[in-house]
Amino acid sequence: MDIKTPVLADPAPIKKSRLSMHSSILPYSPQPQRALFATGMLLSIPRKKTGVLDDVRTAAWLDSMKSSSPPPKKFAYDTNADQDSSDVDVSYRSWTLNYPSALTSFEQITHFAKGKRLALFLDYDGTLSPIVDNPDLAFMSDDMRSAVKDVAKLFPTAIISGRSRDKVYEFVGLSELYYAGSHGMDIMSPAKGSAGFNGHPNCVKLTDKQQGKEAVLFQPASEFVSMIEEVFTSLIETTKEIKGATVENNKFCVSVHYRNVAEKDWKTIALRVYAILKEYPRLRLTHGRKVLEVRPVIDWNKGKAVEFLLDSLGLNDCDDVLPIYVGDDRTDEDAFKFLREENRGYGILVSSVPKESHAFYSLKEPSEVMEFLKELVTWKLSSL
Ligand SMILES: O=P(O)(O)OC[C@H]1O[C@H](O[C@H]2O[C@H](CO)[C@@H](O)[C@H](O)[C@H]2O)[C@H](O)[C@@H](O)[C@@H]1O
């Protein structure tokens, strides 16, 4: 396999022309048996190493960094900071014509969910907990925790986070859920499973110590742990003089945070991360909310994690299952895309600013996510 330089892997641009609104609120067609594991999960993306190309790439990184996580109330692709707030509201309202609020469309959602088994997939940062400056302090509220707990008693519920699985479990602390860390590269799921993953080399059956249950542990990037550890150390070293920069080890990926770094230093961060990545052709970079994420070049993402979890929950290839995925970040788009393309279920984008997305619905912020979860509980209990 010829992989020469780091891969810049922003999700493909989302086409402006969305499917006509809610065209997929149609009976789902039966899905053919899916192969969960491609024969080779490594992506082969040959690159040339030239100075010009390097400049272009770091410039592209910088653009992505600038457009990442805009301040609330500012139109996502508007550069005019003086924009009147009423204009912003108008922009947001017109955006919701394409991405209706999951709260105001609740009846539509439940109408479609009637007679179906819901499965819930939730992102953590920016979805269950508000975005804060210090990633170590991104706690979810007790109210949110009890809303998630209640919903998980009624529907199979999983959290799929970019954090390490242990870290996200530490934040959430609920044994009723299933957890996937490192953007889906570390999944602890129930052992019900279908033939899809039995016997896969990265899949082992064990007893989940945290939850005391029989489980399946799937870590498709297990061979990268020591490389990630090494890169983590190098990234700490190379960013240590940049004020505000922090590096987080998420086991199968590393986050380089620049939320607290002065904008004038973002280019330095981009150049230094890029220089390290050039030494690791089997790693690539994705962008999140004021964070550069370094991860293995494997064909695995949150969308594949949703499919894996559905399979291990025994819910794949079932016409009567309606998966709902709630998330706020670019990496969640893979899951939205999977649900949309497979005509499976609904993605709900959490955003207070207009953004192009593969999601169907929107919610403004984590407090609305909590409200939505509570409504699901009320709806389900009233129908029992
Ligand atoms: O998939 P997620 O659960 O959304 O995780 C994505 C990243 O989330 C965290 O960073 C983000 O939230 C921080 C706390 O609010 C914020 O300070 C940071 O700017 C955001 O990017 C987490 O720290 C990362 O490791 C995750 O990859």
From TrEMBL:
Keywords: Hydrolase, Stress response. Its EC number is 3.1.3.12. This is Trehalose 6-phosphate phosphatase. It catalyses: alpha,alpha-trehalose 6-phosphate + H2O = alpha,alpha-trehalose + phosphate. NCBIfam families: HAD-SF-IIB (TIGR01484), T6PP (TIGR00685). GO terms for molecular function: trehalose-phosphatase activity. Residues 66-85 are annotated as: Disordered. Belongs to the trehalose phosphatase family. The keyword Hydrolase applies. Gene3D superfamilies: HAD superfamily/HAD-like. Removes the phosphate from trehalose 6-phosphate to produce free trehalose. Trehalose accumulation in plant may improve abiotic stress tolerance. Pathway: Glycan biosynthesis; trehalose biosynthesis. Pfam families: Trehalose_PPase. It comes from the Eukaryota. SUPFAM superfamilies: HAD-like. Coiled coil: none annotated. GO terms for biological process: trehalose biosynthetic process. Its cofactor is a divalent metal cation. The keyword Hydrolase applies.
